Amino acid sequence: MDRLRAALDGAGSAFWLRDARAPAALLAGTPGLPTDGEGLARIDLRIEAGCIAAIAPAGSAPDGPSLDGGQVWPGLVDGHTHIDKGHIWPRMPNPDGTFGGAIGAVMADRGANWSVDDMRARADFALRAAYAHGTVALRTHLDSYMPHAPNAWAMFRALRDDWAGRITLQASSIAPLDRFAGEEGAELADIVADSGGVLGMVTRLSGGIHDEMPADFQPMLDRFFALAEDRGLALDLHVDESGETGARALREIAATALRRGFKRPIQCGHCCALSLQPDAFAEETIRLCAEAGIAIIVLPMCNMYLQDRVPGRTPRWRGVTLVHEMRAAGITVSVASDNTRDPFYAYGDLDMVEVFRAATRILHLDHPFGDWPRAAAATPAGAMGLPDHGMIRPGAAADLILFRARVMTELLSRPQADRIVLRAGRVLSAELPDWRELDPVLTSG
């Protein structure tokens, strides 16, 4: 890869990138290109003035740097993260690794340490890692509780401005559903609207977990939908994140969207409990979600870490939802990072290559791979309303990730630490930030 990097550095503003393999599912404007058994097409890419000028069958280009059959992917899209709480693990670990332990630890750290400066330093560190890994767009959820919410959203607006042109940033609120009742709910929704955000919540109540829905769940859900309708906001919801079969909010969300004729996009994350429901209920829920046009986003690393965790007992299930059944019903399904080095997930680095590798193994997104590569790129881009992201197409920015790996087993067997990231056709010089940079932040709270 050093030789390729040197060749790219000397290639100028117009050149061919020769002999690359790309997932056909991530190519646009290239009808009739032959693909192999893994869905990979062998291509040459013409790059001019920072954009993709042409895609041609391999062997068409007369000269230019060669990938020697290695893979090229578009810049990836991380549609569900939590950069406001990222990297607090060293000062506030989860005592037992459970969901309840995570809630308590985050609440304690937020109350003691989450100043604007603290959040921004940790969030910026996280974005620098994502940028170096090749992420081009990212949506974060922001803990939105009064009186904390105004500071969190002010931090995000400043961060979004700072990162413009490098990573396209979006934000969604997150708070328990009951927080949106009364005047506080309207105030939260106004902050989201004024910030150009997405209205989000979690389908548990304050102090609770995702289990039996309370008797007043539906009036609270209708109130939440009304807040979004009045402000023209899209929705992004944390749903049924447990192994409790009483957690059945996903069905009610889909039914409510259909009954109200809700027109804005809806994305639902987690939906773990659905995989433990009776078949008839799961099938009905999936049918309603498909009819309502709900996008599903799955967080396989975090959910496998948290779900079915009981001290001294081996977990019995993977903690993830019914992705294959959803896809078969026509529902769009994405994968994303979720939490990084905080009480909800002790690991992670906002690396969507890692996410796709883990998702393939956990969710069996293989044999065949089909168009599952879209789940880390084009599909979340579509759910976020970013049609110019996540695909390799003529006219798009030449924001690409180059791999030495040729076939999918090579790509998914190593971390791809030697990848080359191109932004506007030039080699990105950004490096992963050193963990030590966070030491002053994590010891000053």
TrEMBL record:
Keyword Iron-sulfur: no
EC number of the protein: 3.5.4.1
Superkingdom to which the source organism belongs: Bacteria
GO MF, one example: cytosine deaminase activity
Pfam families: Amidohydro_3
Domain Amidohydrolase: 221-427
UniProtKB keywords: Hydrolase
Gene3D superfamilies, sorted: Metal-dependent hydrolases, Urease, subunit C, domain 1
CDD domains: Bact_CD
InterPro entries xrefs: Amidohydro_3 (IPR013108), Metal-dep_hydrolase_composite (IPR011059), Metal_Hydrolase (IPR032466), Metallo-hydrolase_Enzymes (IPR052349)
Annotated NCBIfam families: PRK07583.1
Name this polypeptide is given: Cytosine deaminase
Species the sequence originates in: Roseomonas nitratireducens
